[in-house]
Automatic annotation (TrEMBL):
<keyword id="KW-0472">Membrane</keyword>
<dbReference type="InterPro" id="IPR045340">
    <property type="entry name" value="DUF6533"/>
</dbReference>
<dbReference type="Pfam" id="PF20151">
    <property type="entry name" value="DUF6533"/>
</dbReference>
<feature type="transmembrane region" description="Helical">
    <location>
        <begin position="158"/>
        <end position="180"/>
    </location>
</feature>
<feature type="domain" description="DUF6533">
    <location>
        <begin position="92"/>
        <end position="136"/>
    </location>
</feature>
<feature type="transmembrane region" description="Helical">
    <location>
        <begin position="126"/>
        <end position="146"/>
    </location>
</feature>
<feature type="transmembrane region" description="Helical">
    <location>
        <begin position="192"/>
        <end position="215"/>
    </location>
</feature>
<feature type="transmembrane region" description="Helical">
    <location>
        <begin position="239"/>
        <end position="263"/>
    </location>
</feature>
<feature type="transmembrane region" description="Helical">
    <location>
        <begin position="284"/>
        <end position="301"/>
    </location>
</feature>
<keyword id="KW-0812">Transmembrane</keyword>
<protein>
    <recommendedName>
        <fullName>DUF6533 domain-containing protein</fullName>
    </recommendedName>
</protein>
<keyword id="KW-1133">Transmembrane helix</keyword>
């Protein structure tokens, strides 16, 4: 393999400059990885980047280089470029997810201030805040994780763990909102509440265990080419898909309870609050179920580089949809205070 640097200039405009522009460096040592060989070239004190800084200041300068492979190893470059393209697509989805989150936040901020911030402290208020605001921590951290250049492997693992556990808390609180909504539809039935709590614990406990197993198995390493930015996982268990199966099981069970009580008790109801609870719950289930199904298909059928394609988007949608359920219910309840639901009133 050869590395060509056609655009390099030297700090001293000596005859070396012309030599550097045409220089070819062999990178075909079978006993060393491509990344290690490129790293050695970039740390050569004789090379200077386009900005006049020493090339060993950063690996980012490799983006300005033209890399050519001999005919005997085209698949290596093809594979590396494919990985880079996939990761770029993942980053686009992550940035789009953050944009959706920020847009929704400002769309609903006025309603949140009026119905949540000014209300007294309660379980529903705490759950709302925990479902909404950790998203503004873990989503930017995910972007940092995928875009930052130069983090150590240990730092990558720490950042990934923080974002993963923050996501777990946020999604867990979103599911609690779903639980409270179902409890309200069942007219505050104590038996239904106990059943829902048992279901939640029995589902979310293995979710936490699976996540812990996955994080312990995840290892970061050098990417196939230094042009690939961000932390690069090189190995890890595929057990993570079990978390999404468990969440789908929980949400499907809650949806069955919602439909059952809706048909049994509220089929012909004209109560706006009931209709809001019912409509938002069904919409939440349809959207999240479709995203979860898509994510499981990606995890099982696509290359491992796609593992994070829908992760951030699903995280954001859990937060947006669940918090909107509570906001819509409280907004409707303001004009209908005689119909009491535990998550509807500002108490």
């Amino acid at each position: 393999m050869f590395l060509m640097s056609p655009g390099l200039t030297a700090s001293n405009p000596a005859p070396d400059v012309d030599f550097l522009r045409r220089r070819k460096i062999r990178l075909d040592n079978p006993e060393r990885s491509l990344t290690d060989q490129l790293d050695n070239v970039l740390h050569s004190p004789s090379l200077v980047d386009l900005k006049g800084r020493s090339a060993n200041a950063s690996l980012i300068e490799v983006e300005d280089w033209e890399i050519q492979l001999p005919k005997s190893t085209p698949s290596l470059m093809d594979s590396a470029l494919k990985i880079a393209d996939i990761r770029q697509s993942v980053q686009y989805v992550n940035v789009a997810s953050l944009a959706v989150l920020v847009y929704d936040y400002f769309q609903t901020l006025e309603l949140e201030v009026e119905l949540v911030w000014k209300s007294s402290w309660s379980i529903s208020k705490v759950v709302f805040l925990l479902a909404r605001y950790p998203t503004f921590v873990d989503v930017p951290l995910i972007l940092y994780y995928t875009l930052n250049q130069g983090m150590s492997y240990d730092t990558c693992s720490v950042v990934n763990a923080v974002t993963s556990w923050s996501t777990a808390v946020g999604i867990g609180m979103a599911e609690v909102i779903l639980l409270l909504r179902t409890y309200a539809l069942w007219n505050n039935s104590r038996k239904v509440l106990i059943a829902l709590i048992v279901l939640y614990i029995s589902i979310y406990t293995p979710v936490v265990v699976v996540l812990a197993i996955f994080l312990r198995s995840l290892q970061h390493g050098a990417p196939p080419l230094p042009i690939i930015r961000g932390c690069y996982p090189v190995s890890g268990s595929n057990i993570l898909f079990a978390d999404f199966v468990l969440l789908m099981l929980y949400e499907s069970t809650v949806m069955v309870l919602t439909i059952w009580i809706g048909v049994k008790r509220y089929l012909h109801s004209r109560n706006r609050l009931v209709m809001t609870l019912y409509r938002d719950g069904v919409s939440y289930f349809i959207y999240i179920f479709m995203i979860s199904c898509s994510y499981i298909i990606v995890l099982l059928a696509c290359p491992p580089e796609y593992v994070d394609l829908l992760n951030t988007f699903q995280r954001v949608m859990h937060s947006i949809l669940s918090t909107r359920i509570l906001l819509h219910v409280r907004d409707t309840a303001r004009a209908q205070t005689s119909f009491t639901f535990p998550i509807a009133l500002n108490k």
